[in-house]
Amino acid sequence: MHHSFSGGHRRHAFTLVELLVVIAIIGILVGLLLPAVQSAREAARQTQCKNNMKQIGLALHMYHDTLRGFPPGWMSRHPDTGKAYWLGRPGWAWASQLLPYLEQGNVVDNRIDFEKPILDDIHSEARKTVIATYVCPSDAAAPTFVLPPGPMPRPNYNAGYQSTLVAKANYVGVFGTVRMLDAGCPKGDCEGNGTFMLERSMRFRDITDGLSNTFVVGERNSRYSPSTWIGVFAGAAHAPGRVVAVAENPPNSNTSPAFTFSSDHPAGTHFLKADGSVALVSEQIDMQTYHALCTRSGREVFGEY
């Protein structure tokens, strides 16, 4: 018996054109999906970054409750006179003082002697210790960086400084709105109009603008300038600017000196207020408002930001 298959259906393979169309459609879908995924990831990173600052705020309040004030911006004395000196020793910064209040007491107990300079050999491990709470996930830089030597003051007390590997941090104290050179730092005063400065501990009562109206800590991205939680390294480049910042220009401003405030967030830069809350500040913030928020006792009046 003869069977005819003329009425059957034959399965055709994809033509090259059809295959290319499918690939193009997949490419378009991936192109649409990737920005959404990246946006969601950055939103999660930004939330973690904000939570880090809230933890820092809580630690500052616990420190204040215990010692009746915030930690000094950095602890630094002249090697000869023993008086406050912005590029002296031991150099430990405000963030190093908060470690026991961030469940990092073991770092202090095992790796740090606050009576000895940062550059003492016993601190070789401490200098490279990365504290997760001090790192913003949006910052893509490596967890450590090399801190190079800088121009030396005269007389040169720190000639022996050599490039040093240190742990990064993305949160720096608010020195105020006046540059350090204009705030008397070379002469020893070094008193900014913000909250963190040389050898001086601010109390709540010193913040007369109000705790909810005063920024005390802000973000800094490593692309602008790497910073550290450790302190001021005598002899290093821009040493005080690694732990505190001056709000001379708006966050992320291209015209700013490197050691101001910055972030990689698309919507702005986080700032911690003295009351423990966190605000996101736009790059377009009014400068009068911005400066009012970065001073502790200016008695300024400002609107929304």
UniProtKB/TrEMBL annotation:
<dbReference type="InterPro" id="IPR012902">
    <property type="entry name" value="N_methyl_site"/>
</dbReference>
<feature type="domain" description="DUF1559">
    <location>
        <begin position="38"/>
        <end position="288"/>
    </location>
</feature>
<dbReference type="Pfam" id="PF07596">
    <property type="entry name" value="SBP_bac_10"/>
</dbReference>
<feature type="transmembrane region" description="Helical">
    <location>
        <begin position="12"/>
        <end position="37"/>
    </location>
</feature>
<dbReference type="Pfam" id="PF07963">
    <property type="entry name" value="N_methyl"/>
</dbReference>
<dbReference type="InterPro" id="IPR011453">
    <property type="entry name" value="DUF1559"/>
</dbReference>
<keyword id="KW-0472">Membrane</keyword>
<keyword id="KW-0812">Transmembrane</keyword>
<dbReference type="InterPro" id="IPR045584">
    <property type="entry name" value="Pilin-like"/>
</dbReference>
<keyword id="KW-1133">Transmembrane helix</keyword>
<protein>
    <submittedName>
        <fullName>Type II secretion system protein G</fullName>
    </submittedName>
</protein>
